[in-house]
Write a structure and sequence with these properties.
Jelly Rolls, four-stranded antiparallel beta sheet, binds 2-oxoglutaric acid
Length: 298
Protein backbone atom coordinates (compact mmCIF):
# COMPACT_ATOMS: atom_id res chain seq x y z
CA UNK A 1 0.00 0.00 0.00
CA UNK A 2 1.18 3.56 -0.58
CA UNK A 3 2.57 5.08 2.62
CA UNK A 4 -0.21 7.67 2.89
CA UNK A 5 -3.06 5.14 2.64
CA UNK A 6 -4.99 5.09 5.89
CA UNK A 7 -5.07 1.69 7.56
CA UNK A 8 -8.47 1.09 9.07
CA UNK A 9 -9.42 -1.43 11.76
CA UNK A 10 -10.31 -3.73 8.90
CA UNK A 11 -6.83 -3.69 7.37
CA UNK A 12 -5.09 -2.15 4.38
CA UNK A 13 -6.49 -4.09 1.40
CA UNK A 14 -9.00 -2.13 -0.66
CA UNK A 15 -12.45 -3.71 -1.11
CA UNK A 16 -11.44 -4.53 -4.71
CA UNK A 17 -8.25 -6.28 -3.56
CA UNK A 18 -10.17 -8.22 -0.94
CA UNK A 19 -12.77 -9.26 -3.52
CA UNK A 20 -9.96 -10.44 -5.77
CA UNK A 21 -8.41 -12.50 -2.97
CA UNK A 22 -11.77 -14.04 -2.15
CA UNK A 23 -12.49 -14.85 -5.79
CA UNK A 24 -9.03 -16.10 -6.84
CA UNK A 25 -7.58 -17.37 -3.54
CA UNK A 26 -4.53 -15.16 -3.95
CA UNK A 27 -3.48 -11.62 -4.68
CA UNK A 28 -0.10 -10.47 -5.95
CA UNK A 29 2.16 -7.40 -6.29
CA UNK A 30 1.46 -5.73 -2.93
CA UNK A 31 4.32 -3.39 -2.00
CA UNK A 32 5.76 -4.04 1.46
CA UNK A 33 9.42 -2.89 1.56
CA UNK A 34 11.33 -0.17 -0.28
CA UNK A 35 14.48 -1.11 -2.16
CA UNK A 36 16.82 0.05 0.60
CA UNK A 37 15.07 -2.19 3.15
CA UNK A 38 15.09 -5.16 0.77
CA UNK A 39 18.80 -4.81 0.24
CA UNK A 40 19.42 -4.59 4.02
CA UNK A 41 17.30 -7.71 4.59
CA UNK A 42 19.05 -9.65 1.85
CA UNK A 43 22.37 -8.55 3.25
CA UNK A 44 21.36 -9.73 6.75
CA UNK A 45 20.35 -13.15 5.38
CA UNK A 46 23.53 -13.52 3.38
CA UNK A 47 25.63 -12.45 6.36
CA UNK A 48 24.01 -15.24 8.38
CA UNK A 49 24.88 -17.68 5.59
CA UNK A 50 28.49 -16.52 5.76
CA UNK A 51 28.79 -16.58 9.56
CA UNK A 52 26.82 -19.80 10.18
CA UNK A 53 27.89 -21.93 7.24
CA UNK A 54 28.32 -24.90 9.60
CA UNK A 55 24.82 -24.54 11.02
CA UNK A 56 24.15 -24.65 14.75
CA UNK A 57 23.39 -27.41 17.25
CA UNK A 58 23.81 -30.12 14.59
CA UNK A 59 21.26 -28.54 12.24
CA UNK A 60 22.15 -26.79 8.99
CA UNK A 61 21.29 -23.14 8.45
CA UNK A 62 19.29 -24.26 5.42
CA UNK A 63 16.95 -26.19 7.70
CA UNK A 64 16.55 -23.25 10.10
CA UNK A 65 15.74 -21.11 7.06
CA UNK A 66 13.11 -23.60 5.85
CA UNK A 67 11.61 -24.73 9.15
CA UNK A 68 10.59 -22.51 12.07
CA UNK A 69 13.52 -20.12 11.77
CA UNK A 70 11.50 -17.50 13.64
CA UNK A 71 11.99 -19.52 16.84
CA UNK A 72 15.77 -19.06 16.85
CA UNK A 73 16.60 -16.19 14.45
CA UNK A 74 15.41 -12.74 15.64
CA UNK A 75 15.43 -11.31 12.10
CA UNK A 76 12.82 -13.83 10.92
CA UNK A 77 10.66 -13.36 14.00
CA UNK A 78 10.77 -9.59 13.57
CA UNK A 79 9.82 -9.87 9.90
CA UNK A 80 6.67 -11.77 10.89
CA UNK A 81 5.54 -8.61 12.71
CA UNK A 82 6.11 -6.20 9.80
CA UNK A 83 3.19 -3.73 10.05
CA UNK A 84 2.62 -3.47 6.27
CA UNK A 85 2.29 -7.26 6.03
CA UNK A 86 0.02 -7.53 9.08
CA UNK A 87 -2.18 -4.66 7.87
CA UNK A 88 -2.89 -6.54 4.63
CA UNK A 89 -3.35 -9.93 6.29
CA UNK A 90 -5.71 -8.33 8.81
CA UNK A 91 -8.07 -7.49 5.94
CA UNK A 92 -8.50 -11.22 5.37
CA UNK A 93 -8.14 -12.82 8.79
CA UNK A 94 -9.17 -10.02 11.17
CA UNK A 95 -7.23 -8.35 13.95
CA UNK A 96 -6.05 -11.36 15.98
CA UNK A 97 -3.08 -12.85 14.17
CA UNK A 98 -0.49 -15.49 14.97
CA UNK A 99 2.53 -16.45 12.87
CA UNK A 100 2.66 -20.26 12.66
CA UNK A 101 5.71 -20.56 10.39
CA UNK A 102 8.37 -18.43 8.74
CA UNK A 103 10.34 -19.93 5.86
CA UNK A 104 12.87 -18.82 3.28
CA UNK A 105 12.51 -20.33 -0.19
CA UNK A 106 15.85 -19.83 -1.90
CA UNK A 107 16.63 -21.03 -5.42
CA UNK A 108 20.18 -20.50 -6.55
CA UNK A 109 20.87 -19.03 -10.04
CA UNK A 110 20.38 -21.74 -12.67
CA UNK A 111 18.74 -24.07 -10.14
CA UNK A 112 16.43 -26.79 -11.41
CA UNK A 113 14.61 -26.98 -8.06
CA UNK A 114 10.86 -26.65 -8.42
CA UNK A 115 7.77 -26.77 -6.27
CA UNK A 116 5.03 -29.09 -7.51
CA UNK A 117 1.33 -28.21 -7.59
CA UNK A 118 0.02 -28.40 -4.04
CA UNK A 119 -2.24 -26.93 -1.39
CA UNK A 120 -0.39 -25.75 1.69
CA UNK A 121 -2.61 -27.00 4.48
CA UNK A 122 -2.79 -30.61 3.28
CA UNK A 123 -0.44 -31.96 5.95
CA UNK A 124 -0.51 -29.19 8.52
CA UNK A 125 -3.16 -30.62 10.81
CA UNK A 126 -5.39 -27.56 10.59
CA UNK A 127 -8.28 -29.20 8.79
CA UNK A 128 -9.74 -27.35 5.81
CA UNK A 129 -9.63 -23.95 7.46
CA UNK A 130 -10.10 -20.67 5.59
CA UNK A 131 -8.18 -18.94 8.37
CA UNK A 132 -4.63 -19.56 7.20
CA UNK A 133 -2.92 -17.16 4.79
CA UNK A 134 0.64 -17.10 3.49
CA UNK A 135 2.38 -13.79 2.88
CA UNK A 136 5.19 -14.49 0.40
CA UNK A 137 7.63 -11.59 0.15
CA UNK A 138 10.21 -11.24 -2.63
CA UNK A 139 13.69 -10.33 -1.35
CA UNK A 140 15.14 -10.46 -4.87
CA UNK A 141 13.72 -10.19 -8.38
CA UNK A 142 11.18 -13.02 -8.58
CA UNK A 143 10.33 -13.01 -12.26
CA UNK A 144 8.82 -15.77 -14.38
CA UNK A 145 12.39 -16.57 -15.45
CA UNK A 146 13.52 -16.79 -11.81
CA UNK A 147 10.77 -19.30 -10.96
CA UNK A 148 8.00 -17.22 -9.42
CA UNK A 149 4.88 -18.91 -8.10
CA UNK A 150 1.99 -19.91 -10.34
CA UNK A 151 -1.55 -20.10 -9.01
CA UNK A 152 -4.81 -21.62 -10.23
CA UNK A 153 -7.38 -18.88 -9.62
CA UNK A 154 -10.45 -20.07 -7.73
CA UNK A 155 -8.88 -23.41 -6.73
CA UNK A 156 -9.20 -22.56 -3.01
CA UNK A 157 -12.93 -23.23 -3.30
CA UNK A 158 -12.04 -26.94 -3.43
CA UNK A 159 -11.65 -28.89 -0.23
CA UNK A 160 -8.28 -30.50 0.39
CA UNK A 161 -7.69 -32.62 -2.70
CA UNK A 162 -5.55 -35.74 -2.87
CA UNK A 163 -1.79 -35.35 -3.34
CA UNK A 164 0.66 -37.99 -4.56
CA UNK A 165 3.96 -38.21 -2.70
CA UNK A 166 6.74 -38.27 -5.32
CA UNK A 167 9.72 -37.73 -2.97
CA UNK A 168 11.40 -36.13 -5.97
CA UNK A 169 14.93 -34.83 -5.27
CA UNK A 170 14.36 -31.71 -7.32
CA UNK A 171 11.25 -30.74 -5.38
CA UNK A 172 11.47 -28.29 -2.51
CA UNK A 173 8.47 -29.82 -0.71
CA UNK A 174 8.99 -32.34 2.07
CA UNK A 175 7.22 -35.25 0.35
CA UNK A 176 7.44 -33.91 -3.20
CA UNK A 177 3.68 -34.00 -2.89
CA UNK A 178 1.72 -33.04 -5.97
CA UNK A 179 -1.80 -32.63 -7.23
CA UNK A 180 -2.13 -34.46 -10.54
CA UNK A 181 -3.98 -33.41 -13.68
CA UNK A 182 -3.61 -29.64 -13.48
CA UNK A 183 -3.94 -27.91 -16.82
CA UNK A 184 -1.14 -25.30 -17.03
CA UNK A 185 -3.45 -23.22 -19.21
CA UNK A 186 -5.52 -22.56 -16.06
CA UNK A 187 -2.50 -21.19 -14.17
CA UNK A 188 -1.45 -17.56 -13.69
CA UNK A 189 2.11 -16.44 -12.90
CA UNK A 190 2.65 -14.21 -9.88
CA UNK A 191 5.96 -12.42 -10.59
CA UNK A 192 7.12 -10.07 -7.84
CA UNK A 193 9.56 -7.16 -7.79
CA UNK A 194 11.92 -7.00 -4.80
CA UNK A 195 9.89 -5.80 -1.79
CA UNK A 196 6.52 -6.92 -3.15
CA UNK A 197 4.42 -9.73 -1.71
CA UNK A 198 1.59 -12.04 -2.66
CA UNK A 199 -0.99 -13.44 -0.26
CA UNK A 200 -2.40 -16.91 -0.84
CA UNK A 201 -5.10 -19.04 0.73
CA UNK A 202 -4.09 -22.38 2.29
CA UNK A 203 -6.13 -24.36 -0.23
CA UNK A 204 -5.14 -22.40 -3.37
CA UNK A 205 -3.29 -24.68 -5.85
CA UNK A 206 0.19 -23.26 -6.47
CA UNK A 207 3.60 -24.31 -7.81
CA UNK A 208 6.87 -22.76 -8.99
CA UNK A 209 9.46 -23.45 -11.66
CA UNK A 210 13.28 -23.53 -11.89
CA UNK A 211 15.41 -20.42 -11.52
CA UNK A 212 16.75 -19.66 -15.01
CA UNK A 213 17.92 -16.18 -14.00
CA UNK A 214 21.46 -15.15 -13.09
CA UNK A 215 20.58 -14.10 -9.53
CA UNK A 216 19.40 -15.96 -6.44
CA UNK A 217 15.66 -16.08 -6.04
CA UNK A 218 14.85 -15.39 -2.39
CA UNK A 219 11.33 -15.56 -1.00
CA UNK A 220 10.17 -15.16 2.58
CA UNK A 221 6.97 -17.07 3.36
CA UNK A 222 5.10 -16.24 6.57
CA UNK A 223 2.10 -18.40 7.48
CA UNK A 224 -0.54 -16.56 9.49
CA UNK A 225 -3.42 -18.12 11.37
CA UNK A 226 -6.14 -16.94 13.74
CA UNK A 227 -6.67 -18.17 17.31
CA UNK A 228 -9.78 -20.04 16.10
CA UNK A 229 -7.86 -22.39 13.78
CA UNK A 230 -6.87 -24.71 16.60
CA UNK A 231 -10.10 -24.41 18.50
CA UNK A 232 -11.20 -27.98 19.21
CA UNK A 233 -8.20 -29.71 17.58
CA UNK A 234 -6.26 -32.29 19.52
CA UNK A 235 -2.47 -32.43 19.73
CA UNK A 236 -0.15 -29.53 20.35
CA UNK A 237 1.08 -26.86 17.98
CA UNK A 238 2.83 -23.55 18.41
CA UNK A 239 2.38 -20.04 17.06
CA UNK A 240 3.59 -16.55 17.85
CA UNK A 241 1.02 -13.84 18.55
CA UNK A 242 1.88 -10.91 16.29
CA UNK A 243 -1.26 -8.76 16.52
CA UNK A 244 -4.32 -8.52 18.77
CA UNK A 245 -5.10 -11.16 21.38
CA UNK A 246 -5.39 -14.92 21.57
CA UNK A 247 -8.18 -15.49 24.07
CA UNK A 248 -8.65 -19.11 22.96
CA UNK A 249 -5.13 -20.46 23.52
CA UNK A 250 -5.56 -23.50 21.30
CA UNK A 251 -2.04 -22.70 20.08
CA UNK A 252 0.82 -22.82 22.53
CA UNK A 253 1.83 -19.18 22.26
CA UNK A 254 5.56 -18.66 21.84
CA UNK A 255 7.48 -15.43 22.26
CA UNK A 256 10.13 -14.46 19.72
CA UNK A 257 13.72 -15.62 20.25
CA UNK A 258 15.80 -14.16 23.07
CA UNK A 259 18.80 -13.75 20.75
CA UNK A 260 20.45 -15.50 17.83
CA UNK A 261 20.47 -19.28 18.45
CA UNK A 262 20.30 -19.06 22.25
CA UNK A 263 20.25 -22.32 24.22
CA UNK A 264 16.64 -21.99 25.48
CA UNK A 265 15.39 -21.12 21.98
CA UNK A 266 17.27 -24.08 20.48
CA UNK A 267 15.64 -26.36 23.07
CA UNK A 268 12.22 -24.96 22.17
CA UNK A 269 13.03 -25.43 18.47
CA UNK A 270 13.68 -29.14 19.09
CA UNK A 271 10.46 -29.49 21.08
CA UNK A 272 8.41 -27.88 18.32
CA UNK A 273 10.03 -30.11 15.67
CA UNK A 274 9.15 -33.21 17.69
CA UNK A 275 5.57 -32.13 18.26
CA UNK A 276 4.97 -31.09 14.64
CA UNK A 277 6.70 -34.06 13.05
CA UNK A 278 3.94 -36.56 13.77
CA UNK A 279 1.37 -34.33 12.07
CA UNK A 280 3.46 -33.43 9.05
CA UNK A 281 4.56 -36.97 8.27
CA UNK A 282 1.22 -38.70 8.89
CA UNK A 283 0.34 -41.15 6.14
CA UNK A 284 3.72 -40.86 4.35
CA UNK A 285 4.97 -44.08 2.76
CA UNK A 286 8.62 -43.38 3.51
CA UNK A 287 10.68 -41.25 5.89
CA UNK A 288 10.05 -37.57 5.45
CA UNK A 289 12.47 -34.80 6.29
CA UNK A 290 10.25 -32.15 7.80
CA UNK A 291 10.89 -29.99 4.76
CA UNK A 292 13.30 -30.26 1.88
CA UNK A 293 16.00 -27.76 2.72
CA UNK A 294 16.65 -26.49 -0.76
CA UNK A 295 20.17 -25.96 -1.92
CA UNK A 296 21.50 -23.21 0.22
CA UNK A 297 25.23 -23.68 0.50
CA UNK A 298 24.90 -24.19 4.24
O1 LIG B 1 8.71 -20.45 -3.11
C1 LIG B 1 8.11 -21.28 -3.79
O2 LIG B 1 8.45 -21.54 -4.91
C2 LIG B 1 6.93 -22.01 -3.26
C3 LIG B 1 6.40 -21.44 -2.01
C4 LIG B 1 5.20 -22.13 -1.51
O3 LIG B 1 4.78 -23.16 -1.98
C5 LIG B 1 4.51 -21.51 -0.39
O4 LIG B 1 4.98 -20.51 0.13
O5 LIG B 1 3.45 -22.04 0.00
Amino acid sequence: MPKDSPVTMSGSLTPAQLDQYEKDGYISSLKVFDSQTVSELRNAIETLEATHSEGTDGISLAQYFRVNGHVVIPLLSKLASTPAILDAVQSILGGNLLAWAVELFIKEPGSEKTVSWHQDITYWGMGETNDEVTAWVALSEVSVEAGCMRFVPGSHTNGIVSHNDTFSESNLLSRGQEIGGIDEADARHGPLRPGEMSLHHGRCFHASGPNRSADRRIGLAIRYVTPEVRDGLTGRDYAMLVRGVDAIKGWTNIAGPQGLFTAPDLALYQRILRDQEATLTEGATQDVALYATGENTT
